[in-house]
Each structure stands twice: as structure tokens, then as C-alpha cells.
Amino acid sequence: MSVIFVGHRGVAGTHPENTMISIQAAKQLGMKWVEVDVQPTKDNVLVVCHDHTVNRCSNGKGRVDELTLKELQSLDFGSWKSGEFQGEPIITLEALLEFCGANDMSINLEVKVDSHDPAYVVSLLKTELEKSAFNKSNLIISSFSNNVMRELHQAELGIRLGVLAKRVNRKTLATILDVNAFSCHLDYKWLTANHINILRELDVEIWCYTVNNPKSFKHLDSVDAVFTDFPTRFEGATNLETSTQP
């Protein structure tokens, strides 16, 4: 089986995560898939950011949903990683879809919620996707929130869904069945041969996060895809292209 390698938050090992320059780096490595996180701003614009605050990955402070897009765009989301990325801005989902669509890249969108209303966040996502020309067949949407997954299923977006979980258990399997999931995205450290067999019987693809050392994952050749911060570490064992063409 040919394993898909997915750039985790772009190429998060070497670039500021979830920024356009990180997505561009994945493209330059010849990667076809990237994974990013989306959540709403105070003024209800979906932006690409993992944490619910900007404290870790910018020069600002505060919750994403308590800042407007304009306020977020005034922050530096690059310097925390390295001075060479100074001034790198936050990106909107709209901009991400435009770039990846123009460059024939596929996306795993992880919907982030904590205090958010899952139904409302899914409605924002549905609106954004309906106005975008991005090819829906190049998308997988996932979330750790079972409520988000069920809202996504009920929204009938025509997009594949991936159930996110730390490990396979009854709750995970129930959600897979409830939303007719295409894939299950799991922490590779907890994956067992028995889990693989169970998911194969359900005809569900197995995607594992976040694998940064090829030697650390004994089931690497038995899954469909892995997320990685360091895709170049897998060059010797995969057909990952290394073209540097933009």
C-alpha cells in the first residue's frame, strides 16, 4: 500500500505552523496533502490557527474568537519560529482554499471548538465552502468534537469526514458509524494491529498523527496516511517528490 504523507500544519517542523509560508513549503517539497486547523474570529471569519489563543504562535495575546480579523492580521505569526519568518500573517480559510485550489493540493481541515457552538461553526464552514471553487473531492474535514462531527454529517456537505481520536474505543467506533466516516485519524502511539483489523472491517481509512521518525511507527506500512512535521525524513522510504518548483 502506498502511504499518503500529509504536511502537518504545513511543514510545522521547519516553518511557522498554519501559515501560508508553511503551506508553500509543503508545495515546494512536492506534497499533495496538508492538514490545518480552522476556527472563527470575533467577527465570524474562519482563520487557520491551532490554539484557541494567539499567545504561543504570535507576538500578541488573547483568544482568537475575541479578536477581529483585522486585529489578528496586525500580529506577527512567524517570528516565534525564526526571525526569517518575521511578519508572517495569519491566513483565512478563504485564502488557504484559493492557494491550494490553484496548486492542486488537498486539505484536511480540522475544526477546532471549545466554548464555541458546534452548529454555528459548521454553518460558517458550510458558507465558506459553498462560495469557494475548491474541489470538494480534495477535502477531508475532521474534529475531535463528536458534536462537530455530527453537525458536519447533518449539514450534508458532500465532503469526506474523518473522525479524530487518540485511540480506537467504543466511542470512536460509534462516531464513525454515526457520521459514515471515510477515515479515522489516530495517535500512532496507541494504534495496534487489532485496531487496524477492526477499522479495515468497517472499510474506514486509517490516518495517523504525528509521525516524525519513520522508525518509531511499526505500523507505517499498514495505514493509509500519516501526518508529519518533517516530511523530508521520509524520503528514503516513500515516493515523496522533492521538486522545488513553486
Automatic annotation (TrEMBL):
Keywords from the UniProt entry: Hydrolase
Pfam families with a match to the protein in the record: GDPD
Enzyme type, top EC level: hydrolase
GO molecular function terms listed in the Swiss-Prot or TrEMBL record: glycerophosphodiester phosphodiesterase activity
EC number: 3.1.4.46
GO BP terms: lipid metabolic process
Domain GP-PDE stretches: 3-238
UniProt-recorded name of the protein: Glycerophosphoryl diester phosphodiesterase
Natural source organism: Vibrio maritimus
